[in-house]
Design a protein that fits this description.
Layout: H1 3-12, E1 16-20, E2 24-29, H2 48-56, E3 61-62, E4 72-77, H3 80-84
Antiparallel strand pairs: 1-2, 2-4, 3-4
Length: 112
């Protein structure tokens, strides 16, 4: 499979709804999909935020981002109040020193 067909396959994977309640929505974002419009790729036509809004019929607020090549759970708030202070995310530090941390997960299989 060449790189172009792999990119087309990835780009065609649907966003999947994992959880929804009155405050929050969780979806599975496939790799290759931007979370929202970005100057990084002005020609892109698919965005997780827009697809999640269409999937739920609700205006949503992204609580975090996942890089384009990353797949995983993406969380949205379903109202402004929930978007301002989700109870499960840490409060900003007074010093403003929030650092990005990533925890990789894998199967242990070698990358060949």
């Amino acid at each position: 499979m060449n790189e172009e067909s792999t990119t087309a396959r990835i780009a065609s994977e649907p966003l999947r709804l994992l959880y929804e309640d009155e405050w929050f929505v969780a979806v599975h974002k496939p790799e290759g999909l931007l979370v929202h419009r970005s100057p990084l790729d002005r020609h892109e036509t698919r965005f997780a935020l827009q697809e999640a809004r269409e999937l739920t019929g609700r205006y949503l607020y992204p609580l975090h981002r996942l890089d384009r090549p990353t797949s995983g759970v993406l969380l949205f708030a379903a109202d402004r109040w929930a978007a301002k202070r989700p109870p499960f995310l840490p409060a900003p530090r007074a010093s403003g020193e929030n650092k990005k941390r990533s925890t990789p997960a894998g199967t242990g299989a070698p990358l060949h």
